[in-house]
Amino acid sequence: MRSAQLGTAAASLLAVAAVLWPAVPAAAPAPIPAPGWASAHGTLAPVPLVVCGTDATTGLGVSAERAGSCAVALRVAAAYTRTLSRTRGAPTEVRAAGATWVCRERQGDPHPYQECLDTGHSGRRVTLTS
């Protein structure tokens, strides 16, 4: 008889818990932007990247947002990787392809990557990944 009372009490407790704590899925944490993702109005959307080749100095893969930008991307990557030993990963400016670029390491998911942005507000972006 005691086990029947305990079973009834447990069932009642579960019913009360279900009312007090309705099943609401937890919000997933926002992903960390990585190569191939761009933030637009607070949301992340995929940006197709084109693999342009490999940087000769580091062996890192070089990508751009358009196939027509690959020659520029490879020149930017070369200019940036020549500075890496001096800058030790700090953000740095490089001149390449007639523009000034700001390059730095970014934390990807899960691996860091290098990113260079055209400071001329053209929206051009070059990424270097391992």
Describe this structure as you would to a colleague.
It is a single chain. This protein has helices at 2-20, 70-87; strands at residues 37-40, 43-46, 50-54, 61-64, 92-96, 99-106, 113-118, 125-129. It is of the alpha+beta class and 130 residues long. Strands 3-4-8-7-6-5 form a 6-stranded antiparallel β-sheet, with helices on one face. Strands 1-2 form a two-stranded antiparallel ribbon. The longest helix has 19 residues, at 2-20. The protein is globular, with a radius of gyration of 25 Å. The model is unreliable at 2-11, 13-35 and 37-41 (pLDDT under 50).
How many β-strand runs? 8
Amino- and carboxy-terminal Cα gap: 67 Å
**How is the main sheet built?**
6 strands, antiparallel
Strand fraction band?
A: 25-35%
Rg from C-alpha positions? 25 Å
| Order of H and E elements | HEEEEHEEEE
How confident is the prediction overall: mean pLDDT?
75
Strand order in space, largest sheet: 3-4-8-7-6-5
Shape: globular
Quickly give the structural class. Answer: alpha+beta
Portion of residues within helices: 25-40%
* Total count of helical runs of at least 4 residues: 2
Poorly predicted segments: 2-11, 13-35, 37-41
Secondary-structure blueprint of this entry?
Elements: H1 2-20, E1 37-40, E2 43-46, E3 50-54, E4 61-64, H2 70-87, E5 92-96, E6 99-106, E7 113-118, E8 125-129
Antiparallel strand pairs: 1-2, 3-4, 4-8, 5-6, 6-7, 7-8
